[in-house]
Amino acid sequence: MPNTTNYSDFEKDLENEAYWKAVFGPDNEPQREFRAGTRHTTLLGWFPTRKCIRGEVRTREPLMGDLLFHLDTDPAIRVITEFPVKQLYDARKSDGTPIAKEHIPDLGVLRADGAVFVIDVMPFYVRKSIRGMDKRIAILRRHYRKLGATYLLLDETTIRLEPLFSNLRLMWKHKQSKHEPSGMAQLRDALREASYPASIETLMRTMPNNAIFARWSDEPPSDARHVIECNPTFSAVMQLAISGELDVDLNSKFSSKTIVTRKENAHV
User: Domain of life of the organism in this record (predicted)?
Assistant: First the structure.
């Protein structure tokens, strides 16, 4: 006898919410495993991020790691997990015969507003070489829409778009860490009280303690040298952009002329 149970939209929403809560929870494990010593066709890697419960994301190819620069610097993104689910979706063979196919997405992403994104990455030339790819994308979008999520297939034409990508990589390099130079917390507080819009150059000229001096542990304080490669104000601006308190112009390559404003919307 067929199941005639009908769920209201509200009940289905609650069901989907509970499902994704478990997916993004501490007990969920990646559905793909890459064993040491096994030969792979792509270059595997790790991406450190506090947005993943495990503290790092396993990447199956460099393009996946590049996408994480976008996600890890976007304050709207709260949780990232790799290979989060194993789903069976309805498809058809070339002769029209219905079959069930397995899908393990590269990433699951939870946004601060509760929106869920299921993401695959694939190089553009690979995507174009696979027959029926557009149809497959449409099927997966419908499948995950029923689960309350949005499915995306991304390639380098969006992930590595310049100058956005280079800006985000640079921003990520300046993100806050446990081992930051002394005075960074006070500098961030000073930036919170600054007037905006302002250029990075203007902020550098008006912020206190805008220099880093370093020495080896066996050297006297008088031997401390000015580390000209690093500017504390620039680092603090990047950190406040990542936290969602400031916004920087990502449409042009970062420079001293880059305009900084108070944050309104996420950049992704």
Answer: Bacteria
- Residues 208-218 pLDDT 10s: 877 655 667 78
pTM: 0.87
CATH of 9-159, one of 3.30.70.980, 3.40.1350.10, 3.40.50.620, 3.40.50.300: 3.40.1350.10
* pLDDT one-digit tens code per residue, 194-242: 999 999 989 988 988 776 556 677 878 776 654 445 789 999 999 999 9
Contacts for 164 with CB less than 8 Å, ≥ 6 apart = 250, 251
Question: Rounded distance, CA 89 to CA 98, Å?
Answer: 10
Each domain of the chain, given as residue ranges in start order, spans 9-159, 175-262
